Amino acid sequence: MRSPIRVVFEQRNETPKHLSILVPLLSVVAALVVGALFLLATGYSPIETYSNMLSDGFISSRGITDTLGLSTVLICTGISAAFAFQMNLYNIGGEGQLYLGMIGGAWAGLALGDQLPTFVMIPVVLLVGSLAGALWILLPAFVRSRLGTSEIVTTLLLTYIAASLVKHFVYSPGSFFVTKNSAFPQGRLVPDSASLTGIGDTSLYPTFFLVILITLGLFWVVKKTEYGYRIQVISDSPRAAHYAGINANRTTLSVMLISGALSGLGGAVLIVGPFGRLDPGIILLGYGYAGIVIAALARNNFSAIIVSGILFAGLRSGGDKLQISTDTPIHIGVMLQGAILLFALGGEAFRRYHIHAVRTERATQ
Amino acid sequence: MKKMWKLAAVAVTASLIVAACGGSDSSSDTTSAPAAATDVKVAVVYLGVPDDKGWTYQHEQGILQLEKDLGVEVKRIENIADNADSEKTFEQLASEGYNLIYATSFGYGSPMANVAVKYPDVCFQWATGAKFLLTKDGGGAFADFAALPANLGTYFGAAEEARYLSGIAAGKATKNNKLGYVAAFPIPEVIRGINAFTLGAQSVNPKATVQVAWTKTWFDPTVEKQAAESLLDAGADVLGQHQDTTAAGVAAEAKGAKWVGYNSDVKEAAPTAWLTAPTWNWGPYYTKTTKAVADGTCPTDEYYGTMADGMVTLGSFGDSVDADTQAAITAKGAEIIAGTFAPFTGPISDQDGKEVIASGVKAELGALLSMNYFVKGVIGSAKG
């Protein structure tokens, strides 16, 4: 009798360099192949679908500017998630912190916009938005660092409250954020001094470059500074950190606040950029939740987040446009976006484990 | 094995490169001015999907009629969130040569107006829109009405007329005079509808009251159902709604209560509970405006349809609506269509008993469009 075959997952101590590049690449390829089979089965041409997705997402001039424009906020929520995740702090409430960034940014723009010039107003809006995002994570950060309460639950629950807050500020008659004499509750546009124009009339705003700089800055902080070293030690071994005299509570608090501020920045970026007003429609877009996926795709590596953020934005933007450029229904576009992300995340297993089949030895016989 | 992977990788990369080259030349078609209706490239942008049995479904029915009437083929764009992000969708539609774009939700207004400025030859139509909201005074980006793009029209209608009629059915159906109303947002459109429903009910049952439950959502079956159940628990035996799903009807059916729907004639959703529903008939407007664009003009007025022109209709009657009630509703409907009766004719007083519309006065459209108070008999706050 032949002994049965068993699949063994053997954890790798160190990932070979070629796998770090090959795995994500092949994951995307595998997703495209599966997507192609699905497209063929449903009667759509994979070549036409992919070429349109690629063109509308990355290649045509509007495609790439739309993608980079969208990636601006996604990179914000991506680095927000990654900054907390790297210390095993699971802030999954970036979505809510983003709403608060929008509320704070819109407030600053409306309250101060008429008195201050643009070069002051833009930083003020971005700063107030970031502070509002940090404020929204203050309570979860405090109870996490002092009492060890799970931040997963608290940050998520606060997201629902933040969504209600956005609706409250827009749908309550007489709210500061809406037009007084309007028949329909609609957020007021911030004054011109608090809004930027897209580069060359596109949906790409100068904030993109600021966000890239901030991301690279964080990369440097994490790799090169003492603060980054502390984060590393705490995440590797809290006990070792304790013996080394590192104050884990204080670091936890600051890391979470920074994470919240980065999502808040994403919300403020929308105020000085494409939205220009507090808009409850933000709740339909899930930019904050997308940040979690983007951070996971980049394995919390800040420079990789720029790539995964742009990739995600392009997939989304190109996938959304599929139904215009081809006759592919929206569901297929969404399915392809999902498949690519799922495969990319699933591929992780191959990177982290050495997977091989073995025959189980039998003692008797 | 390794070789196979390599081959596969090369093949896919190659196909992607080919695909990329093929895709880049598709964005530059230019279309000349259309001559016949079939030459008009029409697109419609939906908030949801056409089979939601509610708001989007009803627009889809209108689009299907347009296709039948004029033989045009309409491009549907589904699941587009109505916020600033939708600007990309409108921009791409305009750049791909669509001549006429219908947008079926309020939030599309600003993004669409921004695109309309860049594409003066494309005709844009904004359902439920109001041009005032695009101006600075209304919280929008344009200095004043004169600065608005000249290729943008809005369309909506007097649902309050059919809501009044549906209120008659509700007022007759209630046993304990307690009506409930599952309502989306405290905005004039919804408030106006609640008032019309209440006035209709009171016209046949002066003791009828209407308790309002706000959901703060247009489309959320779970929340709508919970709101409906809370009203039923509070004693309501007939429900009205300003929502895009049939969840309130399902809740009413389960509790043996009656239900007035909205948007679509969907008795099957709650067969016993069903009384009737104010419904929309967008087809004639779509056909008319597409014809106009084919003839070279973009309708740019703020169109407000009525029962008289058929944009607003009343759905079929449920089995429990007796012949007398049906006849009374039909007669009232005929008066509305003939222009001899309007739901908001004084004397009408607000919740506190203060007279808001004087005896014999017919409220003007402007007053209807900005209505922010509840009439006497409504229980709840018009502020949400």
Summarize this entry quickly.
With 365 residues, chain A is mainly α. Chain A has helices at 17-41, 46-59, 61-85, 94-112, 118-147, 151-171, 207-224, 226-236, 238-243, 248-272, 287-297, 302-325, 330-346, 348-352, and strands at residues 5-11, 353-359. Chain A has a domain at 63-298.
Write the topology of this structure.
The complex is a heterodimer of chains A (365) and B (384).
Chain A: E1 5-11, H1 17-41, H2 46-59, H3 61-85, H4 94-112, H5 118-147, H6 151-171, H7 207-224, H8 226-236, H9 238-243, H10 248-272, H11 287-297, H12 302-325, H13 330-346, H14 348-352, E2 353-359
Chain B: H1 2-23, E1 42-45, H2 55-70, E2 74-77, H3 87-95, E3 100-103, H4 109-118, E4 123-127, E5 152-157, H5 159-173, E6 178-183, H6 188-204, E7 209-214, H7 221-233, E8 238-242, H8 247-255, E9 258-260, E10 274-276, E11 278-280, H9 283-294, E12 302-305, E13 312-314, H10 323-338, E14 348-349, E15 355-357, H11 365-369, E16 378-379
Parallel strand pairs in B: 1-2, 1-3, 3-4, 4-5, 5-12, 6-7, 6-8, 7-16, 8-9, 9-10
Antiparallel strand pairs in B: 11-13, 14-15
Helix pairs in contact in B: 2-9, 3-4, 5-6, 5-10, 7-8
